[in-house]
Specification:
With 98 residues, this protein is mostly helical. Helices cover 95% and strands 0% of the residues. The protein has 4 helices and no strands. The longest helix is centred in the middle third of the chain and has 66 residues.
């Protein structure tokens, strides 16, 4: 049986010489595709990490500005409760709205 397989394989390769070459090219293309996939995975990972950093920084800046606004609003509200002169001053409303 073995004696038949080897000559039969040689005959098939002689009849279809490009078949082996074609498979070799497909294997090389598959290897390149796997490498590209790995690169794309790394790019996606880097993009996610960048988004998380940006999102975190934006949240910190937003929280700080909101805290600053709340502090000033609390201060002006307390001034209006304490002093009727401040409550009736026209610019206090403009400042609070600004």
């Amino acid at each position: 049986m073995r004696n038949i397989i080897i000559p039969l394989t040689i005959i098939i390769l002689m009849l279809f010489p490009n078949k082996g070459n074609s498979q070799s090219q497909e294997i090389q293309q598959l290897i390149l595709n796997i490498e590209k996939l790995a690169q794309f995975k790394q790019i996606l990972s880097d993009m996610k990490k960048g988004y998380e950093i940006l999102s975190g920084g934006y949240k910190v800046a937003k929280d700080m500005s909101q805290g600053n606004f709340t502090l000033h609003k609390t201060f002006l509200d307390a001034l209006m409760q304490v002093s009727p002169v401040v409550r009736n001053y026209k610019r206090v409303g403009d400042i609070a709205n600004f």
